[in-house]
Amino acid sequence: MLKIRLQRTGKRGQAYFRVVVLEHTTKPKGKYLEFLGSYDPHKNELSVKEDRIKYWLSVGASLSETVNNLLVGNGIIEGEKVKVWKPKKKKKEIAPQAAPTVPAPATEAPVEESKTKETPASEETPPAPPEGELPKPEEPAKPEEPLKPEEPPKEAIVDTQG
User: Fold this and answer.
1) What pTM does this model have?
2) Which domains are delineated in the chain?
3) Per-position pLDDT tens, the chain of length 162
4) Residue 5 contacts by C-beta under 8 Å, 6 or more apart in sequence?
């Protein structure tokens, strides 16, 4: 099957493309049947032989998606543009199971009762993070004094010759 597609030329960072007709199984930089034009992406200029493109399409050659979009955008052929690339799907983040949260009571307690009722600090639960955010890990307590390596016990020197 014949295909009209782009063939990259130029240096690294300075890409230029040829519009060529070739067999769809040949390498992108391989030998082509006919040179149909060129495309400069830096200046967004497309210069092609319109009559030869229409000839190859009438013979049965197909267009690559990018060439199709270039030719439709410049009014050389009629048709709609094709979506060339698909955005990557974002991976869903799995939040670790946090401490169970206590739902708020349906009715508010009177102010007098809330003053007399005290809860110990150990029973209070930390507030739950908003959805989509991970809870911050607690930092370990830092010791006040740096730890020193233990020194081996000093042995008494005994003179056995004396």
Assistant:
1) 0.52
2) 2-73 (3.30.1320.10)
3) 999 999 999 999 999 999 999 999 988 888 999 999 999 999 999 999 999 999 999 999 999 999 999 999 988 888 888 888 888 888 776 656 665 666 666 665 555 555 555 555 555 666 665 666 665 666 666 656 666 666 666 666 666 675
4) 19, 20, 22, 28, 63, 64, 66, 67
Q: Which residue has the tokens 């769809």?
A: 24
- Residue whose token pair is 């990018």: 66
Tokens of 2: 């014949």
Phi/psi-derived region of residue 114, left when phi > 0, alpha when psi is between -120 and 50, beta in every other case: alpha
5 and 20 Cβ atoms separated by less than 8 Å = yes
User: 58, 57, 56, 35: which is closest to 47 by C-alpha?
Assistant: 35
Could you tell me the CA-to-CA distances from 123 to 55, 97, 126, 128 in Å, in that order? 81, 19, 10, 15
